[in-house]
Amino acid sequence: MRSFDLAPLYRATVGFDQIADIMDRALASDVSQSTYPPYNIEKTADDAYRISVAVAGFSDEDLNVEVRENALIVSAKKTEDDSDRTYLHRGIATRAFERRFQLADHVRVIGASHEDGMLHIDLKREVPEALKPRRIEIARGVGAIEGKVN
C-alpha cells in the first residue's frame, strides 16, 4: 500500500477539509473494480457535463438513476426472464450493475434520457453568487479600512 504525506497540501489550503476524504477515497479505491458498463464523461459547456453509460439490452424500467449524498448512482437489474431462450452465443451482457460517480459541490443532475442503448445523464455546475469570485478594491491610506482616508 502506498503512503503519501499530505501535510504540505494542508499548509497551502484554507477551508478544504473534505480534500483529505477525497484523496483517501481515490488512493484506497480498489484497482480490480468492475469496468462494466463502459461510460463516457464529456464537457458540453463551461459548467455543463454529460455522462453516457452503455446500457445495451436494458429497458427504461430496468434502469435506476438517483442522487444520494453527493453521489450519482446508476444501477440496473434485468426484469425479464430469459430461461425460455436458447443462446448459441451471448455477447450482450445484461447482468445487474451499480456504478457510482462522486459529484463535486454545486453540481446537480438536470435530467436523464435513454436512447439507442445509451443512458445519458446531464449535469450542471451551479455556483451560488456568494461563492463566486469577487474583486476587492484596494484603498489607499492608513485608515482606509475604517473609512478614514488621511
In short:
By secondary structure, the chain is mainly beta.
Keywords:
single chain, 150 residues, mainly beta, Immunoglobulin-like, four-stranded antiparallel sheet, three-stranded antiparallel sheet, 2 helices, 33% strand
Structural overview:
This protein is mostly beta strands and 150 residues long. It has a domain at 33-129: Sandwich (Immunoglobulin-like), CATH 2.60.40.790. The chain contains 2 helices and 7 strands; from the N terminus they run H-H-E-E-E-E-E-E-E. The protein has helices at 7-11, 18-28; strands spanning 39-45, 48-54, 63-68, 71-76, 97-102, 107-115, 118-125. The strands form 2 sheets. The chain has a 4-stranded antiparallel beta sheet with strand order 1-2-7-6, with no helix packed on it. The protein has a 3-stranded antiparallel beta sheet with strand order 3-4-5, with no helix packed on it. The longest helix has 11 residues, at 18-28.
Q: Which secondary structure elements does this structure contain, and how are they paired or packed?
A:
Layout: H1 7-11, H2 18-28, E1 39-45, E2 48-54, E3 63-68, E4 71-76, E5 97-102, E6 107-115, E7 118-125
Antiparallel strand pairs: 1-2, 2-7, 3-4, 4-5, 6-7
